[in-house]
Amino acid sequence: MNHRPPGYEPGELPDCSTPRSKINYTKTKRIVNTLLKIRDLDSAKDFVKFLKGLKIRGNKMKMIKKIAGIDVSYKGDKAKLGYVLYDSETLKKIEERYYIDKVDFPYIPGFFSFREGKIISKFFLSLNRFPDVIIFDGNGKLHPERFGLATFIGRIFNINTIGCAKKLLLGNYINPENKKGAYSFIYDRGEIIGVALRPEKDITPIFISEGNGIDIFTCIKLVKRFLDGKRIPFILREAHRVAKMVPEILPNSEWQMANSE
Fold first, then answer.
1. Which of 1, 199, 236, 242 could be cross-linked to 82 through a Cys-Cys bond (beta carbons 3.0 to 4.6 Å apart)?
2. Dihedrals phi, psi of 78, to nearest 5 degrees
3. Which residue, among 105, 123, 127, 124, has the nearest Cα to 115 in the 3D structure?
4. Strands (E) located in the chain
5. 233 exposed, middle or buried (CB, 10 Å; 0-12, 13-18, 19+)?
6. 3-state SS class at 188
7. Maximal CA-CA distance, the chain
């Protein structure tokens, strides 16, 4: 049984495409440049306040066609990003990309987005067209400030995002039924902040949350498409594989090249 509170009803899947031509690229680049200069906690807090003040702009179309997954791995002071893009209907991989950069923001609980968000933002500036939806290895609303990595990046770029985490950052939930696709809502201080989704029978739940522009039921439907009997959706396993395979000896211009299958 899925635990749905009163007033929560699933809707149809929206189409959330965001081509770069549809965003204010000059403004977005200016926001990213401000992000890249941040080195201290006070500036980070001010930046989050600024992002929270931006209007949430979900883009409505008729069909979700392309879904991307992103993962970042670390080695020393280097962050290595893996990006994979899939056809949402056939689940065939369209392309994979990678990017590497130095980390210049310390690990601070609650402000992980500044550590990982900088490399992701640099990479996104190189894309000519964004996918319809991006699934992040991280959180969205499931965050003390309701502003995890998926929300952080989604708000900067006006793109539609989902958080998919392996560990529960905060909140409480009833263990979902022991079958594939069962879920239960995660609560914090009386507020729904995500769901615990069981990817397969006898497998520990993963934690899904709204990022930007998408309701929680759409998040669940899209993540379910990439379940294949293992705990982590294969779109994120592939992004992780790409990130881990990136060597550390080539310049960034070469990391940005696509590997089309």
1. 242
2. -105, 140
3. 105
4. 66-75, 78-87, 93-102, 133-137, 161-165, 183-188, 191-197, 206-212
5. buried
6. strand
7. 54
Q: How many CB atoms lie within 10 A of CB 67?
A: 25
Cα-trace Rg, the chain: 17
Helices (H), 61-207: 112-124, 149-157
Mode of pairing for the β-strands spanning 161-165 and 133-137: parallel
Domain range summary for the chain, segments of one domain joined by +: 20-255
78: tokens are 């280097």
* pTM across the whole model: 0.86
Q: What superfamily in CATH does domain 20-255 come from?
A: archaeoglobus fulgidus dsm 4304 superfamily (3.30.2170.10)
The residue whose two tokens read 């992040």 is 136
pLDDT tens for each residue of 165-190 = 999 999 999 999 999 999 999 999 99
Specify whether the CB–CB gap between 147 and 52 falls below 8 A: yes
Q: Which amino acid is at 108?
A: I
Q: What is the pLDDT of residue 58?
A: 55
**Look-up of token digits 């502003």:** 147
Distant-in-sequence, close-in-space partners of 60: CB < 8 Å, separation ≥ 6: 14, 15, 16
Report yes or no: 73 and 245 within 8 Å, Cβ to Cβ. no
For position 35, what pLDDT does the model report? 95
Sign of torsion over alpha carbons 26, 31, 36, 38: positive
Express each pLDDT in 214-256 by its tens digit: 999 999 999 999 999 999 999 999 999 999 987 765 555 344 4
Tokens of residue 77, six digits: 């002071």
